[in-house]
Amino acid sequence: MAEVMTYRVPGMTCEHCKRAVGEELSRVRGVESVTVDLDSKAVAVTGEHLDDVVLRRAIEESGYEAV
Question: Could you count the other beta carbons within 10 Å of the beta carbon of residue 25?
Fold first, then answer.
């Protein structure tokens, strides 16, 4: 059964930010979809067996920080 994990990423300000975060998270094993909302600075990750540490690291790898 898929689970959803949501993060606030306040440093995202544009479409490039949205794409960078989305692409990095999409590479994580188990991730089925990523939804990024620039207005609320929210990122929702849907998938199976998601690991919070791995997802936060992926966000950091894209150049941003999840709070």
Answer: 25
The domain ranges of the chain are 3-61
The CATH-assigned architecture of domain 3-61 is 2-Layer Sandwich (3.30)
Q: Kindly give, in sequence order, each residue whose CB lies less than 8 Å from that of residue 39, ignoring residues fewer than 6 positions away.
A: none
Q: Residue 7's CB: how many other CB atoms inside 10 A?
A: 20
CA distance 58 to 60: 5
Residue 27 burial class via C-beta count within 10 angstroms: exposed 0-12, middle 13-18, buried 19 and up: exposed
| Per-residue pLDDT tens over the stretch 15-55 | 999 999 999 999 999 999 999 999 999 999 999 999 999 99
The pair phi, psi for residue 7, each rounded to 5°, is -130, 150
